[in-house]
Each structure stands twice: as structure tokens, then as C-alpha cells.
């Protein structure tokens, strides 16, 4: 494809400049690969169910509920 050849052409109607800009924007957005979905991080409430710094042994249960 040469640089003189248009990427697309309007074969019917007379679109306004704004309509052409909108069309180009949609085509550009559709041609980009989509990003993989982002997994949401666990909320603070969900993380509190399994505290990472929980201690074992005597007093461990009480220490797991205390603020760090």
C-alpha cells in the first residue's frame, strides 16, 4: 500500500468534519489490542480475615486482631 492511498474512503453521503473525526477515533480505538482485565485487589475488610502478620502460639489469636 502506497502512502498516497487512503486508509478508507466514504462511498456514500457527505460526512461533516466532526463525523469523520469521530469515525477515525472509533477505528483507531478498535485497532489497538485491548488490555487484559485487571483483577480487583481485596478490600481491607477481606484482607483482615487472614492477617499476614498473625502470630502463632500463646496470645496469637489476640495479637491477630490488634492494629499493627
Summarize the structure.
With 68 residues, the protein is an all-alpha fold. It has helices at residues 17-31, 44-48, 60-64.
Count all strands and give the number: 0
Return residue spans where pLDDT drops below 50 for at least 5 consecutive residues.
none
String of helices and strands:
HHH
> What is the alpha-carbon Rg in Å?
28 Å
Largest sheet: none
Subunit arrangement of the protein: single chain
* Helix proportion range: 25-40%
Judged by helices, strands and strand pairing, the structural class is mainly alpha
Arithmetic mean pLDDT? 77
N- and C-termini, Cα separation: 64 Å
Portion of residues in beta strands equals under 5%
Pfam families: ACC_epsilon (PF13822)
InterPro entries: ACC_epsilon
GO molecular function: acetyl-CoA carboxylase activity; propionyl-CoA carboxylase activity
Organism: Micromonospora yangpuensis
Structure, explained:
This protein has helices at 17-31, 44-48, 60-64. Helix content is 37%, strand content 0%. The mean pLDDT is 77. With 68 residues, the chain is mainly alpha-helical. It has 3 helices and no strands. The chain has a domain at 1-32. One of its GO terms (molecular function) is acetyl-CoA carboxylase activity. It comes from Micromonospora yangpuensis.
Supply database-style keywords.
rod-shaped; 3 helices; 68 residues; 0% strand; mainly alpha
Ordered list of secondary-structure elements with their pairings:
Blueprint: H1 17-31, H2 44-48, H3 60-64
Amino acid at each position: 500500500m502506497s502512502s498516497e492511498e487512503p486508509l478508507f474512503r466514504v462511498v456514500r453521503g457527505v460526512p461533516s468534519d466532526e463525523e469523520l473525526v469521530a469515525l477515525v477515533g472509533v477505528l483507531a480505538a478498535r485497532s489497538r489490542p485491548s488490555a487484559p482485565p485487571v483483577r480487583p485487589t481485596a478490600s481491607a475488610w477481606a484482607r483482615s480475615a487472614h492477617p499476614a502478620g498473625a502470630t502463632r502460639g500463646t496470645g496469637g489469636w489476640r495479637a491477630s486482631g490488634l492494629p499493627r
